């Protein structure tokens, strides 16, 4: 079981999904993107340090959902 985090953005295009957690990757259409491409990679790193994981659960034109799982002690 994990914690789902959902946004209400435009979603992640299918061709960009394999690179979601790559540092500095801002999408195939970088011209219109803001940010450094570090949010998801940094979040994944924090999850792994705690023996957890972070993965893309769902993305559509209305939203994106990522799931954070952490071990229960």
Automatic annotation (TrEMBL):
<keyword id="KW-0808">Transferase</keyword>
<protein>
    <recommendedName>
        <fullName>histidine kinase</fullName>
        <ecNumber>2.7.13.3</ecNumber>
    </recommendedName>
</protein>
<dbReference type="InterPro" id="IPR004358">
    <property type="entry name" value="Sig_transdc_His_kin-like_C"/>
</dbReference>
<keyword id="KW-0597">Phosphoprotein</keyword>
<dbReference type="InterPro" id="IPR036890">
    <property type="entry name" value="HATPase_C_sf"/>
</dbReference>
<dbReference type="InterPro" id="IPR003594">
    <property type="entry name" value="HATPase_dom"/>
</dbReference>
<keyword id="KW-0547">Nucleotide-binding</keyword>
<dbReference type="GO" id="GO:0000155">
    <property type="term" value="F:phosphorelay sensor kinase activity"/>
</dbReference>
<feature type="domain" description="Histidine kinase">
    <location>
        <begin position="1"/>
        <end position="73"/>
    </location>
</feature>
<dbReference type="Pfam" id="PF02518">
    <property type="entry name" value="HATPase_c"/>
</dbReference>
<keyword id="KW-0067">ATP-binding</keyword>
<keyword id="KW-0418">Kinase</keyword>
<keyword id="KW-0902">Two-component regulatory system</keyword>
<dbReference type="GO" id="GO:0005524">
    <property type="term" value="F:ATP binding"/>
</dbReference>
<dbReference type="InterPro" id="IPR005467">
    <property type="entry name" value="His_kinase_dom"/>
</dbReference>
């Amino acid at each position: 079981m994990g914690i789902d985090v959902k946004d209400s953005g435009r979603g992640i295009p299918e061709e960009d999904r394999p690179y979601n957690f790559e540092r500095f990757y801002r999408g195939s259409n970088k011209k219109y993107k803001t940010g450094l491409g570090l949010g998801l990679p940094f979040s994944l790193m924090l999850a792994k340090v705690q023996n957890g994981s972070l993965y893309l659960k769902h993305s559509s034109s209305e939203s994106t959902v990522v799931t954070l799982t952490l071990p229960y002690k």
